[in-house]
Amino acid sequence: MTTVGFDPGAIGRGPSAPGTLDPGAFDPGAAAGRATDAILHDTLHGTERGVVVDSPPGAGKSTLVVRAALELAEAGRPLMVVAQTNAQVDDLVLRLAEKNPELPVGRLHSSDADAYDKALDALPQVRTSAKAGDLAGLPVVLSTAAKWAHVKVDEPWRHAIVDEAYQMRSDSLLAVAGLFERALFVGDPGQLDPFAIVGSEQWAGLSYDPSASAVSTLLAHNPGLPQHRLPVSWRLPASAAPLVSDAFYPFTPFRSGTGPGDRRLAFAVPSDGSGPDRVIDEAAASGWGLLELPARHTPRTDPEAVRAVAAVVRRLLDRGGAAVSERSPDPAPLTADRIAVGTAHRDQAAAVRAALADLGVRDVTVDTANRLQGREYDVTVVLHPLSGRPDATAFHLETGRLCVLASRHRHACVVVCREGVGTLLDDYPSTEPVQLGTLVKFPDGWEANHTVLAHLAEHRVSWRP
Amino acid sequence: MSLIETLARLEAVGSGRAQPGATVRHRHVSGRPLVFVPLTTAGETGAPLGALVGTERDAPRLLVVPQPRDRDLRFAFLAELADVVLPYIDGYADLVEAAERSETDPETGKRVKVETELCADAPQIVVPSRTGLDHVRLLGRSTRFRRTAEQDPETPYPAPPRVPLLGRWLTHYGERSRVPGSSLLLAATDLLSRHWATGQSGLEDQHLGALLAWIDPPDGGSGAEAARRAELARDEAGQLLCPPAGPATDPAFDNKLLAPAFERYDRARTALAAAEDGPAADDRLAELTTAEREIRDLVLGATLPTWDAVWQGLDLLRALPEGAHVEERWTRDRWSFTGHRDRVTAGEPPQPRRDDAVTAANKLATREREQSRLDAQESLDDPLVMAGRRLNGEAFAGEVTEVVMAYSEGRRPSPRPLVTVRTDDRPHLAAGTRVYRSLNGKPQAAEFVAREEPDDGTDAWHLVLRIVDRMGRGKEPEAGSVPEKGDTLCWTLFEHEQRGGAKLPDPEETPWTHGGPPGEPAPEAPDAVTEEDVL
What we know:
The complex is a heterodimer of chains A (465) and B (535). With 465 residues, chain A is α/β, with parallel strands linked by helices. Chain A is 33% helix and 20% strand. Chain A has 16 helices and 19 strands. In chain A, the strands form 4 sheets. An 8-stranded parallel β-sheet of chain A has the order 4-3-5-2-6-7-1-8. In chain A, strands 16-15-17-18-12-19 form a 6-stranded parallel β-sheet. In chain A, a hairpin with a 2-residue loop joins strand 13 and strand 14. Chain B is globular and about 105 Å long. In chain B, 39% of the residues lie in helices and 17% in strands. In chain B, a hairpin with a 6-residue loop joins strand 3 and strand 4. Chain B has a 6-stranded antiparallel β-sheet. A 5-stranded mixed β-sheet of chain B has the order 4-3-2-7-8, with helices on both faces. Chain B has a two-stranded antiparallel ribbon with strand order 1-9. Chain B has 2 domains: 300 residues, no CATH class; 100 residues, Beta Barrel (Elongation Factor Tu (Ef-tu), domain 3), CATH 2.40.30. Chain B contains 12 helices and 15 strands. Chain B is of the alpha+beta class and 535 residues long. The interface between A and B is large, with 37 and 35 residues.
């Protein structure tokens, strides 16, 4: 499940920007439309070899990619699209097919079994192959960066779109950059940075540090490239956009596309007064809820916290939730596929899955921040990365991790956490060694964590299970 | 820290003794390693103060820089070090065996096998601690660009003849030590803490004396107490009983003993230079010799306990049987050694100061592949390591309870037997997840199909797997290629062998996103002489 498509132009014209259209007020549809037009203009008519687009969570990144791909194809420019995972590639192919069923599209895939989504086989205009030669001449060819790296061409593509470019590693761009003449790079700078499983300090500070993000290398060598920003998050509700913007994008603020009353979450079954029910009501009313368990140092798979997460999910389903949003006038039932649980580690996700199975809950997505990137749900339940920890490592403090977890929801986010994270943060100020020549990233994880924690404290429900 | 390591450390705290972290030795330990215990002077990064170095545990060679700020004395030290290290390295360069290597044929572009030679063994350098590795790297960096008088008669401060070559070898060893699982250059603390879990933190484990005290406490007492003594105990003069493994020295040693000794040495040197006649000079030379001997004794006193500790650590490691894949990884080290030997022989210039974009990306890719390979091989070699992976949900072991023959669909049906494994582990499986077992040393893959829950009154999981390969080409699987009921097997969720990554462009084809081609390779200029160099 990924972001549902929208048409920035249509929103500007349509009735969905609700009752706040007094002159001079911020019109999200118009602002997004202007940004999109400028990006497409630079992409199609600009003189630079690259265009960079920063997109906050849920700002219509994929929609932009699809639209740019269609316009480039229409202009007769052979296009390759580079995404980071097979799921992302398949999703883009499906969206392209939906927008223009006439356009022949090539899906280059690996030779593994189940290399691509079998839904593509049902589309007559999509040709799939493990060999780039079979797809030659098609107006658009899509694949993952890993697969593109094995492709050899005599004549480079005239144009490329690189999706999730901030999650792509510099060395991975190095392997594919010879395949295209110019490219549109789209991504979210606030999400998780790419990582290496071995130390890479020896290259820190080099403009082409292979473990850095593709965009940082690109801009270090080509500082004059036009950079754009999508200004409106269509996913995040009015209750979440200001916090996420302040905490993770303080220098490039964005707004929510909807106003305070446009999204509502209501439950048919009243609260039974338990911690999970109280935090659900708090989150439904304010968009945020913090279920705080007593302070304690625990192993990563803290059984109490895991059970608390599962209990919140169980009650979300049992209480007959209904979500009202700008998408439809009628309330949509809050079903299992509209709820996700986010954790920092895979073993935590596995523990939550087991706890949910014990409560008879299936079909709720439970995954780590890395895998939740780019996805969207109505309600998310997050196990706080620092909950129960005796120390705060760089991994757990990483800005992008918290940003991903706190920006997947359209309606409400419930965070489950042990008491004492504030003190833990104060005990562990950032002490990463300073590397000469590297760009210091602001805000750091320490500060972002404090900002989020301070906000969550206003929506705290203390609970002793 | 993994759950099993946390448990081992808790048990170490409880028992006061280090607990095994491995049942086999996961690194190659040479029969004749070169042990190198360097010391540096406080105040100037990487300024050598002295070292104990050698291949015989009862005959270390003591090298001392009696005045570390004197560049001539530093060069003399480096020349002496080269006299020990280079003959040791050369001793391995000529003993070769025939080998094959894949190369890309420049004409056809195809991969072809080329006959070549591979050094039969490789020299191994062991330093006490991780900071010792950095020091080796730093020595390499500070010497490989020096010019000798023979290379450049104009150079104002020529280096002794073999010092730049020493720098190139130390650089190669320092760089190789960053490759996971490599054994050309090892730190004793890393080696020991890989194989034992102590009741202290990873940071404290970098104190070689304390680490050894946990593993092998003197007179069999409590390791925790012995470690505390090793770290903190001082004599009545305020000096540590167990000097730190270096290269940095204890500040009390620097202030109370070393600084006054330097001062006496400097005074004696000034006096000697000012001597007016022969007899006076003789007296003052004797004073200088005495002052120098004092410093030598101090350096010896600060390095000898570490020297013994390194050898004690090597003894402990040698007592463990070698892991099954260690030999294979050591062969890669031998290739690395042979490759550098060839580059030196071919007269190539020293390693550049900075990697270019393509070299950096290639190194990172290699190291990531080696890390995955090391993780997989250590697990396969060692049931204790595998237990950690099982506890993590990355592997599971159990008994085969049922085998049902099945076939794939299609024109030529192939065997796809369904195997049910009963396990008490809790692997993180989803439908279609690939799992692997070792079959005659090769990985056999299966797909996870489903988890059955027969009511047998236990918590065990019954996992149905579909075997997908290594059963031969025929319709019926080859004998022994399908598990049988009653077999006890261990399956992993991680792959046993690593695929090679994509080929990166050549450096001269570096794309515009990475700054374009670096241009014609120019030999690197020697390091410029700075004010600090002529203090």
